[in-house]
Structures are given as structure tokens and as C-alpha cells.
Amino acid sequence: MADEEKPKTWWQTLPGIITSLTAAITAIAGLVVAFKQAGWIGSPPPAQPPSVTAPASSSSQAPAVAAAPASSTRTSHAVTLPAMRDYKLGLVTFTLLSAEVSPQTSEKDALRIRLRMMNNDAYDTNFWDRSFRLLVDGVPTAPESDLNELVRARSAKEGTVLFVVPHGTAAGNLEVSHHDEQTSIPLAFAAPR
Hints:
By secondary structure, the protein is α+β, with helices and mostly antiparallel strands. The protein has 3 helices and 11 strands.
């Protein structure tokens, strides 16, 4: 007679059992995650504080008004730019477009300087924060902006450089550098009277 089929021992089916259990656990875990994300199980998300949506006549609005920064009473103002606006450094020309001082905190102001960089070179070049420093009372400060652009050959781009200065700063010098060349531009920050 032909080979009779022998019954399999439980050792031969153990991998099948483990695979089935793994698949079942994975499916259950997936369902639990889906139910939690849908908000069907678990704790509800925290409610927004009532002062966020409370009407203006509510007493809960008073602390928010009292917590407003003192800088909100100060206003932004334009910085008077020098008569010379174009500064050529090698094959690159920086043009001052505008500058503005605005309150940031009760002790600090934000100085935003808008510039254009014209790249007259045959190669691309960087237009970035590294090219600028602000000297206030002889102390250099790096920008707090994230200007980092690539200006293609024979083209121009505009960007804004942000400096944080102590409130009441009257003047400073913007240092602009490109490769080995550098220039210093005097700026008066005082608000017009």
C-alpha cells in the first residue's frame, strides 16, 4: 500500500498558531488605535478655556486685558534711510528698500530691514543672514531672521533681515559683507516726532 499520511504533531502546527495569534493581536491593536483617534474610547480632548470664547462683557475677559503686554501701546514706525541706498560689493549690489522698528516686548524692539540683492556675477550666490550684522554701541548682533536664498546669476531677489534691539535704541550701523568686501550703513531708529 502507498505511504499512509501520518498525523502531524502539535510541534508542526505551532508556527501556524503563532502566525494566527500575531495577526489577531495586530488587528486588535489597529482597531484600538483607530477608535482612540476617532474619540470613541479614551478620555475626551481637553476643553478650551472659557476666556478664549467668552463675550467681551464676561468677567473672565478682564484678566486677558490686564495681561496684555505694555508694548501694545507703542506703534511701529519707519526708519529714515540714508540718501545712498545702493552698496556695491564686488559683483553684488545691495539696495536698501525700507526699514521699520516695531515693538516686540516691553524691553525689546524688532528692526526689520528690507533689501534687494542684485547678482551681476556669472555664478549663483547666497543672499543670507550671514552677510549682515547690526552694531549698536559698537557691539555686533547677528540677525534673528532666517534669510537664506540663492540668487541666480545676473538676477535679483528681495529679502528681510530681522534684528532685535533694546527698546529706545536710537541708532546703529548695519554692516553688510560679501566675500572679502564690507560696508557700514548708519541708521537712525528714533520715531519721528
